[in-house]
Each structure stands twice: as C-alpha cells, then as structure tokens.
Amino acid sequence: MLSSALQILAFALALLGVLGATVATLSPNWKVSADVGANIMTAVSQMQGLWMDCTWYTTGVFSCSLKHSVLALPAHLQAARTSMVLSCMAGSLGLCLAALGLKCTRWGGGRRAKAHTAVAAGGCFVFAGVLCLVPASWFTSEVITAFLDASVPDSGKYEPGGAVYVTFISAGFLLAAGVLFCMSCPGSGSSTHHDDGYTCQPLRKKKNAITCTLQTLSALRDQIHMSYEY
Fold it and tell me: Could you tell me the membrane topology recorded for this protein (predicted)?
C-alpha cells in the first residue's frame, strides 16, 4: 500500500490539477491573436475562450462578450466545453474520495476500506486528466491548422493561449495523482490481512485456541503415563 507521504503528495498534485482545470475552463485566453492587421492601432490583442471573447484596446479598455449561441460554435469548442466541465466534476469527486482514503486521516473506515477508496479516487483523477488532455490537444490542433492556412488573413490568425498550457499542466498533475492513488490497491498477500484490524483478531483467537488444545492433549498424555507407572 502507498505510503502516507506519497499519498499526501498525490493529493497535492490532484488539488493543483483541479484548480488549474477550473481556472482554465473559465479563462478567456484559450487562443490569442497573432496579428490583428488593420486594427493594430486600436486593439492590442484579441482573446477567445470557451465561454467568451475579449479584446484589449490601447486605451486600456478591456471588453468581453459572451458566446450565447451553442449550436453556432464549432465542434472542437463544444467538445472542449463539455470535457472541461466533466473534468472539473470528476476531479472534485476524486478529491472528496481521496480525503477519505488518506492513511493519515481517521475517517473513511479501516485500512483496507481506505485503500479501495483511494483507488476509486485515483480512477477519478485519471478520468479527469484524460478529459483535460483530449480537448486541449484538439483545440491546439485546430488553432495551429488555422494559423498555417494560407487562405486565412493575418487578422484572423491566432495562437494557443495561456489557458491551453494550464490545461496541459493540469492534465499532467491529475494523471500523476491518479497513478499514485491507484498504487494504493491492497495486495493479495498475507501482509494485507495483518494490516486490516478486522482480521487480526480472529486469527489470534484461532492461534490461542490451537495452543490451548495442544496444552490439554499434553496434560492428558502425562496423566496416562503416570497411571501406567503406578
């Protein structure tokens, strides 16, 4: 079973991953303008996110507009929305399970129950990491493809923004935390039975019963020998 120190490290990585995924989901800079062409004198940069588009002007004004239409959005943007929301939900569920599965906490049942809870948390973190990795890769591919397309004017070219990189890093944290928590799976050896407080006591009782039986048989044998001597 995984040590307490590694479990705490995995929990910290998972917490950073969930926070990063949440920040990336809400951030408006999934892609930023590489060159705004004719508007270069009035707008410093343009950004597009999963939920809103923002523009930063030289006058210091920062304006944003929400994406109200869902059906008008491209497929990769709709998929990114769904995947990131599900990733945040799965990661949050994993954090709750991980808090119960930590060996250093008193709640969550015995050690074996904690181990199974930790494995379930690891599965949630791996699932959340994959849900982060897939939309970030797809979104980056679409942005780079449009940037290299010669038919797209310079004013319509974008580069991957900071939210994409945060998503990749968060996915790495979540996957690493998930693997570490999955290592908490209890083995099938006899050592796991001694770690479980619910199985040690019956084994000890059986051992004591066998010892008492052997002592009784030994006493009877001595009495029989003494009777033959008389």
Answer: Multi-pass membrane protein
Amino acid at 15: L
3-state class (DSSP) for residue 66: strand
Could you tell me which of 18, 1, 4, 40 has the C-alpha nearest to residue 169?
18
Sheet holding 62-66, edge to edge: 62-66, 52-57, 43-48, 31-35, 157-160
Smallest CA-to-CA distance from 87 within 132, 49, 123, 133 is with: 132
Does this model's pTM top 0.85? My answer is no
Please name each of the domains of the chain with its CATH number. 4-187+203-229 (1.20.140.150)
pLDDT tens across the length of the chain (230 residues): 557 788 889 999 999 999 999 999 999 999 998 864 544 555 578 899 999 998 888 777 888 888 888 888 889 899 999 999 999 999 999 999 998 888 877 766 777 888 888 899 999 999 999 999 999 999 999 999 988 888 877 777 889 999 999 999 999 999 999 999 888 765 534 344 444 443 334 445 445 556 656 666 666 566 666 655 55
Q: What is the CA radius of gyration of the chain?
A: 30
d(CA 31, CA 144): 10
Q: Measured between alpha carbons, how far is 165 from 143 in angstroms, rounded to an integer?
A: 13
